[in-house]
Write a structure and sequence with these properties.
The chain is an alpha/beta fold and 192 residues long. It has one domain: DHBP synthase, CATH 3.90.870. Helix content is 30%, strand content 18%. The chain contains 7 helices and 9 strands, in the order H-E-E-H-E-H-H-E-H-E-H-E-H-E-E-E. Strands 7-1-2-6-3-5-4-8-9 form a 9-stranded mixed sheet. Helix 1 runs parallel beside helix 6. The chain is globular.
């Protein structure tokens, strides 16, 4: 790997808890991740990715209690769907009316969440809490398939957890704010 030492899951947890930003493998692609509970970390990721400031980032959670931490109520119909597909590569957009979460929802009053299936990542999420986790690339560029490609985008500004190449499809994206729920981004094998 180019010039940056890869770390392990335990080191990643410690660094994320301190508010650092890193590139880690998810169950779909490499993500550039940071604490969803730290507004300054979230803003740092927007800057690193050169992302439009009005576009919310996906948030990864380790369990249902993360919704409680963020004071988000999940309707029973949404919870029923998610109990069938989580953990796994399905992201769901839910409403949040909390002004305290504006740094996450960016004025849209909604956030997309995913509970990943990757055991190491779920363990990390349970340790450090929810993480914002857009794909590890600059806005408008294709997702990094490995840490070398991610390093080309972010250099030594972030840490890296290297698990080789990943080329899984992006997660399905479901809008749970509407009735009936609607698939915004399909994924292989996923149906409502």
């Amino acid at each position: 790997m180019v010039n940056a030492a890869s770390i392990n899951w335990d080191d990643a947890a410690k660094r994320l808890a301190r508010g650092e930003v890193g590139v880690v493998p998810t169950d779909t692609l490499y993500g550039i991740v940071g604490s969803a509970l730290k507004p300054a970390t979230v803003e740092h990721i927007y800057g690193l990715r050169r992302r439009e400031l009005n576009k919310p980032l996906i948030v990864l959670i380790g369990g249902w209690d993360d919704f409680d931490r963020l004071q988000i109520q999940i309707p029973d119909r949404t919870r029923n769907l998610l109990n069938k597909v989580w953990p796994g590569p399905v992201s769901v957009v839910v409403s949040t009316l909390s002004p305290a979460l504006e740094y996450l929802h960016r004025g849209t009053d909604s956030i997309a969440f995913r509970m990943p299936a990757k055991p190491e990542l779920r363990k990390l999420l349970r340790e450090v809490g929810p993480l914002v986790a857009p794909s590890a690339n600059l806005a408008g560029e294709p997702p990094a398939l490995n840490v070398d490609e991610a390093f080309g985008h972010f250099g030594e500004q972030v840490f890296y957890l290297d698990e080789g190449s990943l080329s899984n499809p992006a997660s399905a994206l479901v809008d749970a704010r509407v009735e009936p729920m609607k698939i915004l981004r399909p994924a292989p094998g996923f149906k409502l």
